[in-house]
Amino acid sequence: MEVPEDETPVSPDDLDGITGGDPLPPDDGDDDSMPRKFFVDGGNVAVIHHLVYDLDADGKKLTCRQLTDYTGEKVRTLYPNATDFRHDWLDPDKRPVIVEELLERGIDVESLTETLDKPEADPFDLLCHLAYNAPLRSRRERADRVRHDEAAFFAQYGPEARAVLEALLEKYAEHGEAQFRLPDALEVAPLDSFGNVIEIAGRFGGAAKLKEAVAELTQLLYAA
Predict the structure, then answer these.
(1) What does the pLDDT look like over 6-45, one tens digit per residue?
(2) Domain positions in the chain
């Protein structure tokens, strides 16, 4: 039975890598209607809508589970407790590794919120909710908490730099963490209205300081 698987000079390249990883690779198939196939723990897994079909290594036992239950189980397999999961998710070098490890197990973190009809949730919160029964927060709730609780962070920057950070935070609330990917995020509305990449970096005193500010903002988002 077969089951369908980075101060001067400044260039845009200086700002690459702020999120610690490249975007996820595209799907291999062209037909979105076909189930995605994965080889997991010696067996085959197919993800179809909200269901996961898991065929064991012997090809004899086929198990069907809810995607919510399957996702929670695989997150706990990698991180038995929420503390360790949050610690590594906060690390910009480790976060893409987590995303890749979950993708290898059939869980596409980038599209999970849409798949499970939770488009306003941060993927981190959705994973914590499914794996550890943590409260499910929206990106807007996280952004509002940073604005309310982290005034000292914004106060260390001048008005022009704060405007950039505020715009990035708002873009995150609306569209997700991809809005912190530099320099791409600076080249689309409303950030492009602040000038080109070099001019925007100049508001912070150079590309390195801009990267530090965005990295700290990202950390603050997930700190609680």
Answers:
(1) 333 444 455 554 443 333 334 444 444 445 555 555 556 6
(2) 35-132, 139-222
